[in-house]
Design a protein that fits this description.
Structural class: alpha+beta
Helix content: 25-40%
Strand order of the largest sheet: 1-5-6-7-8-9
Largest sheet: 6 strands, mixed
Distance between the termini: 74 Å
Number of helices: 16
Strand content: 15-25%
């Protein structure tokens, strides 16, 4: 999703410090963010319920939360979203490079890589919804599952989960809105950018959503104004403000809904609401700096200063007059000394011409040098040997490589993200070896699934509540509690090993065909229920083909009887009854024809 269209909010998320790297000062939530940057909003339920909707106190409280979120929490969220887009803070650090020195700003794609790996692993395979009513075995839940299948198809639910997973991994939070389109009463869902929404919870032991707010900037021809939406368990309030989202609200619309609860749902990646790679931001910044400084060193090497010790030898041995900055020849003033562009001094005598050796002009990068002879204080001659070299600093590529590789290893390890470039991460690794590679991420996946399922059940609760009011949809409001949700990790597949396991399980004779079909789904890509239907259709088709073939055998079909019904029948008939039967059959065939 877009970072923001509020320029001031964008600049506040950068927060550079002159000639320093803000992330490496060891102050995680000190100078980088405000202390309130990732807090969960909570107030007593009685305090909220005592407020009269749209009253002055009601508006004042919500404006306070909007202002706090805009000032304290929004910069962190925007920064994390910038990192996912490879717009890391190194792009905005104050430079202390001298003029003419290389100042490259290279950012890594590590945040995007880590997030995409985690989202693909968790949501690469669609969620599976089932139904189980422990209190009523006759309740198959077909009505709920059919309605849910249509709902998921219309809302492209598999992609919706991927967007939610991306927001979770980046910022530690994700939001979705359940709504009804204008003029309709069928529920729909859409993800909401974490930088546009927040939820206020009760202070109960088991907190519940009291209300939620979505606010966002609308930029029309450089005129910015904010839209504010307040979601409660009964109503949705739409307000409009100026360029400050926390003041000058004007009520635009008030809409009642029948979801039975706050329709803006918050999802959490963990209890701390911290993104997957957020704790490693300091090492990501250091990795960016290391890459950039190596690139700068390479660039500075190409522009290195040439040091010459000695005289430059020309190919003619001639001297030429030195030209001054004004383009005129230079002289040495007889009376004052120093350089002058006047050929005569103030007394009218001719000044001495300043002569220099002409440097050889060649297309090749070659300088011809000769030893320089000079007089020592004692009058003896001294010869200085000529040298020419570039002034560069020595680079230890091996040490640099070791350093950045250690940074990468720490980032992968601490975020539990497999390094697919690792030589041990082979395509032919066994399932057990792959499980050990993914063991760390599986531990975090269990936490994520538990929290994600809680919010998913809230989604089902709200849409079942809405369905109970929709004509033509036979769903009860309380049936959501019987829906089961299964997560299937999107693992690298070894089809040969999977088929061997399926064959071994099937040979035991202790597993149903339906289970075998479910196991084979990861190879064929066909859901088990569709595979069962296909097998049923194939069986019916085979039976029909068998019947058709059986009817074409000699003496079995109606056409064959007509061919064999000739005068020889009476001769082959053994009894009178056979003849009678044959005649009756002949009569019947004639009437049919």
């Amino acid at each position: 999703m877009a970072e923001t269209n509020d320029l001031m909010a964008h600049y506040r998320s950068i927060n550079p410090e002159s000639n320093s790297i803000t992330m490496l000062n060891g102050k995680r939530f000190g100078d980088r963010y405000q202390f309130q940057a990732n807090q969960q909003y909570q107030i007593p339920a009685d305090t909220w319920q005592a407020l009269k909707p749209m009253s002055a106190d009601f508006i004042e409280m919500i404006q306070w939360y909007v202002n706090d979120h805009y000032i304290n929490q929004l910069p962190r969220i925007l920064e994390l979203e910038r990192y996912y887009q490879a717009d890391n803070n190194i792009h905005y650090w104050m430079s202390n490079k001298r003029r003419g020195k290389a100042d490259k700003r290279i950012t890594s794609g590590l945040p995007r890589y880590i997030t995409n790996i985690r989202v693909g692993y968790e949501f690469g395979n669609p969620l599976t919804f089932g139904y189980s009513n422990q209190d009523d075995e006759n309740d198959t839940g077909d009505n709920v599952l059919n309605a849910l299948a249509d709902f998921n198809r219309i809302n492209d639910e598999p992609y919706h989960e991927k967007v939610m997973g991306k927001n979770l991994c980046n910022t530690g939070r994700a939001y979705e809105l359940i709504y009804c389109a204008k003029g309709e009463n069928a529920p729909q869902i859409t993800p909401i950018d974490p930088n546009q929404a927040f939820v206020v919870w009760s202070t109960d032991v088991k907190p519940m959503e009291l209300f939620a707010v979505r606010y966002y900037a609308v930029n029309v021809m450089d005129q910015v104004n904010y839209q504010i939406e307040i979601y409660t368990s009964d109503y949705i309030y739409y307000y409009q403000a100026g360029d400050n989202p926390a003041s000058d609200w004007k009520l635009v619309l008030k809409v009642e809904h029948s979801f039975g609860d706050v329709p803006l749902i918050e999802y959490a990646l963990n209890d701390e609401h911290v993104g997957v790679w957020e704790p490693k931001l300091d090492e990501i910044d250091e990795y960016d700096q290391s890459l950039s400084e190596m690139a700068n060193s390479q660039a500075d090497f190409s522009n290195a200063m040439l040091l010459i010790n000695g005289e430059v030898q020309n190919n003619t041995g001639k001297l030429e007059q030195m030209i001054g900055p004004n383009g005129k020849p230079l002289y040495i003033d007889n009376l004052k000394g120093g350089y002058t562009s006047n050929p005569q001094d103030s007394a009218g005598k001719t000044n001495q011409v300043v002569m220099v050796q002409k440097v050889l002009d060649t297309h090749a990068n070659v300088l011809y040098l000769r030893p320089y002879v000079y007089d020592q204080p004692n009058g003896s001659k001294m010869v200085s040997q000529t040298t020419a070299q570039y002034l560069t600093k020595q680079l230890s590529a091996q040490d640099w490589s070791t350093y950045i590789n250690q940074l990468l290893a720490d980032i992968h390890k601490d975020t539990n993200t497999p390094d697919t470039t690792d030589a041990n991460f082979a395509a032919n690794a066994s399932g057990v070896a792959m499980s050990y590679k993914l063991w760390g991420v599986d531990q975090e996946r269990d936490i994520m699934q538990s929290l994600y399922q809680r919010s998913l059940m809230q989604r089902l609760k709200l849409i079942c509540q809405q369905w109970s009011f929709v004509e033509g949809v036979d769903v009860q409001a309380d049936q959501y509690s019987n829906v089961t949700i299964a997560f299937t990790p999107n693992l690298p597949k070894n089809d040969s090993e999977i088929m061997q396991n399926i064959s071994a399980v099937k040979s035991t004779g202790a597993v149903s065909d339906e289970t075998i079909q479910e196991m084979a789904e990861q190879v064929t890509g066909i859901p088990a229920d569709q595979e069962q239907q296909r097998m049923s259709d194939q069986k019916d088709a085979n039976m029909q083909r068998g019947q058709d073939a059986f009817g074409q055998l000699p003496g079995m079909g109606s056409d064959d009887n007509e061919v064999t019904d000739d005068g020889d029948d009476n001769e082959t008939a053994g009894t009178e009854s056979d003849q009678t039967t044959s005649e009756a059959g002949s009569t019947g065939r004639q009437s049919t024809s």
